[in-house]
Amino acid sequence: xxxxxxxxxxxxxxxxxxxxxxxxxxxxxxxxxxxxxxxxxxxxxxxxxxxxxxxxxxxxxxxxxxxxxxxxxxxxxxxxxxxxxxxxxxxxxxxxxxxxxxxxxxxxxxxxxxxxxxxxxxxxxxxxxxxxxxxxxxxxxxxxxxxxxxxxxxxxxxxxxxxxxxxxxxxxxxxxxxxxxxxxxxxxxxxxxxxxxxxxxxxxxxxxxxxxxxxxxxxxxxxxxxxxxxxxxxxxxxxxxxxxxxxxxxxxxxxxxxxxxxxxxxxxxxxxxxxxxxxxxxxxxxxxxxxxxxxxxxxxxxxxxxxxxxxxxxxxxxxxxxxxxxxxxxxxxxxxxxxxxxxxxxxxxxxxxxxxxxxxxxxxxxxxxxxxxxxxxxxxxxxxxxxxxxxxxxxxxxxxxxxxxxxxxxxxxxxxxxxxxxxxxxxxxxxxxxxxxxxxxxxxxxxxxxxxxxxxxxxxxxxxxxxxxxxxxxxxxxxxxxxxxxxxxxxxxxxxxxxxxxxxxxxxxxxxxxxxxxxxxxxxxxxxxxxxxxxxxxxxxxxxxxxxxxxxxxxxxxxxxxxxxxxxxxxxxxxxxxxxxxxxxxxxxxxxxxxxxxxxxxxxxxxxxxxxxxxxxxxxxxxxxxxxxxxxxxxxxxxxxxxxxxxxxxxxxxxxxxxxxxxxxxxxxxxxxxxxxxxxxxxxxxxxxxxxxxxxxx
Length: 698
Description:
single chain; Heat Shock Protein 90; 3 domains; five-stranded mixed sheet
């Protein structure tokens, strides 16, 4: 009796027994919580689908089983990834009772990377695989050329429509996966071709001898598509379609990637250092399959180090970079002292000295790999440190001995860094010593907010005193601070910290942020958790924005990585029809709102803006079928009064903010390399190529 009463009690409202436990089967968890598997259902998650499918093909190439991969964007939101690897097995899987192909596409954590001998090296156990792509797609087609046969199987929302079927004979070999992302899951299913090209170009550098073709066939007309029978065909590129496409193939591996990264830089030495060693060389523990490193010094003060583990980019570096830096510092010190290039009174090179001006790419491949966190941003495998230190240290020492001219140029570059460090130390210490910045009063130009809570505080960095005045008057004084900048800030590209802090504009910003800079940077002392760059929508505004982004990328990178930096998106136009006032941010939005308001645009004098009005609209106006709508074009934030600036750009409920990512800052950094670097020819070419995209107000 007591047991029955207890059982009855637990099933009442609010009770908690076995019946309250939900068990999601198959791929249901993926559709219920997609963010757990691909991070986000925004653009990053959408593009991650392509990476997951591509990674399987790339892993085939890394294993030596494939040398060609093609990624194609097709009409209807479809993406097609084809390779000439071994082809996914189609025979029956003992555990699942269905084909291995169906098992891999419908079961989480199924594949050749989870135990067994499928792959010696892959993207790691955090990889979610093609099954997640299948789960988040309305339609998936898997085609396999294997063992003389052509096999096909289709899926809807992760579930097989029928068993895998052999539909014919084939002399080909490989796998073709075509999928259509589910638009009820993703905020947008519009792919960014430029973004895909950039990622796959990088992958081509990382896998020597792999040919990667990227095709944008989304605008393929019905006639062309009808002639193209996709069934069983491995490569669209062979059809010589007249659509945007790019092919990447690099025999030089990381050596080619360093040359690419230094395209707009002036090299200090001629030869690019390169080493690749595998465990077969018995140079180190077999827990590390291979180490590949390339580097070259350039005439710059910044270090550019890219880190990869099993071809996955590690923006936060990790153990492999720790080993690299240790060996670099030790090897250059040993060589300089051995060849009397470093005087005893000068002491030894520091880690910062030897990194100045270096462009390096470090890649390790490991059968069992560990990352810190799900994002794979930082390598945690301890074995990688010793392997990189041993392989790189030995090979770089040999390189310096075999290339004495290059070695001397590198040492001279480091010695210049040492001298500059010592010469700048007094000036730098006067500003950066502990507590110095804290003791300085906040800059007079800064209109600070009232709250002392960093989490609730926002800093608007605005262009010019005029916009600064409007922003100060229109802001929410409790949570919003305003710092106007007069003109362009210092070009930080080739400036050391002591010179930067001699610039009043930069110094004001450093003091306002509260974190200090350089050696004593402390993110916990950040005074604002939203730092918003608000510049005009013209060429000068874009220039100032690029300068600021480069400053943050170079010296405040944690602020970018933690998501504290934003760009304000002020409106382009103000449209007025009686009491109906609308602010619009793009030309397309303006056209839509004008149609919705039922009118034609007129300037501040009430005159029709003829270049924007069709004959049909003029006729409708004469017949009083449409009305006049006032149109004001904003050339800068300073043209807005305080109320307009608040309503459009500062009000948290109305404004549009773009959160800056590391990729955005990195792109600004690359543009800066061109515009502010020493390569005049590259700068001229860039300006000529991009002049058509500039917004010029004449």
